[in-house]
Amino acid sequence: MDTMEKLRILSDAAKYDAACTSSGVNRAGVKGQLGSAAACGICHSFASDGRCISLLKVLMTNICAYDCTYCLNRRSNDTPRATFRPQELADLTISFYRRNYIEGLFLSSAVFGSPDITCERMLETLHILRNEYHFNGYIHVKAIPGADETLLQQLGLLADRMSVNIELPSNDSLKRLAPQKSKENILLPMSRIRDGIKENAHDLIRYKSAPRFVPGGQSTQMIIGATPENDRCILQLSEGLYHKYSLKRVFYSAYIPVVQDRNLPALDTAPPLLREHRLYQADWLLRFYGFTADELLSEKTPDLDPMLDPKCSWAVRHPEEFPVEVNRAPYEKLLRVPGIGVVSAKRIIRARRQAKLDHEGLKKLGVVLKRASYFITCNGKMQCRLRTDEPAVLAGILRDRGLPQGGIQPEIPEQLSLFNPTKEDAVKCLTGQL
Ligand code: SF4
């Protein structure tokens, strides 16, 4: 099998790993025009400053010793198999890099023989890239649960980011669908990476030239919709992972039915994209807006509202928290107002030191008044004479978003367009403001 055929199989097999935001396109070169696009596993990730990075996203191998029910690469599935040699994959990465196709590598793998053997091969690939080719670009590598601690440590010294997939939202589901994996096997490498990052931070204070260990932090991925856990259970798990393992991100991956099995949704079930979208929004609220999972959802309402984003939904259910007076409210209270994001809350705090703010002024600071006006006062006054009882607020928000107020048709999730954005979309796209 030649390298391009392996690349086709192994980049296709990697597409279910959610650690980036989009996949590539396939476009041949045209005479008289500059460049071409290769679909083979090029995905995009975003740096902390919002810069978009193209990555070669590929598996080391899709030959797997495990038999996870939901996975196309499972041992018992009849699918074309391929394996890269470490030198081959390093050469491929460098040739893509030199052609300017990519800026980095996202490397994952099925379990080839054993977690240790798999990890050794990934380590050899990274070693060639970093120490023979002196490749300085971004590398994200998946840690294989069950691999030896020393191997993980060495991988962490060569990679920018590491991730260990939590896979499913509960131990019961893991036992049922991925019996060769265990909660302990997944959480142990996570805690090792967390400790390694902490120790490395101390080393760097003492010795400035100490090698860096996973400088981009660690992340994880969870499959949504393959198992019966509700959104509350998922968000509680994410919250625990952020606090306990200092994760940078939890990626939610809507389950795409690829396997006929009585423990999984039927093959014609649509992937729960709207649910995935709402979970990402709620995740922003956990990380940047000071919400807890138990505030957003309760035993009585264990799932996110498909009609409204989680912040609006929380605000509509908590009229006792509103209205908030923008000229006096502390930062934490401003953050809870729908339509006021992290950036606009900071701007409000700065601007009101100079002068009292009114509704026109808030608009200039980036506040989305269409949503915020139901929940704020400026100098004790609400905008127009809005009704602020729960049904009126809900109907008003839905009407402003062009949705039926009878509450039937949920918002359809779609990729935000950068080509024809509203101002609100563009800001949300870049900063995750809610
Ligand atoms: S370990 Fe499980 S999820 Fe990973 S590739 Fe093998 S079968 Fe798929």
From TrEMBL:
Taxonomy, superkingdom = Bacteria
Under InterPro entries, the record lists: Aldolase_TIM, DNA_rSAM_put, Endo/Exo/Phosphatase_dom_1, rSAM, rSAM_sf, RuvA_2-like
- Per the record's keyword annotation, is Transmembrane helix included, yes or no? no
| Single annotated GO MF | catalytic activity
Q: Which SUPFAM superfamilies match?
A: Radical SAM enzymes, RuvA domain 2-like
Q: Which UniProt keywords apply?
A: Iron, Iron-sulfur, Metal-binding, S-adenosyl-L-methionine
Protein's UniProt name? DNA modification/repair radical SAM protein
* Organism, as annotated: Hominenteromicrobium mulieris
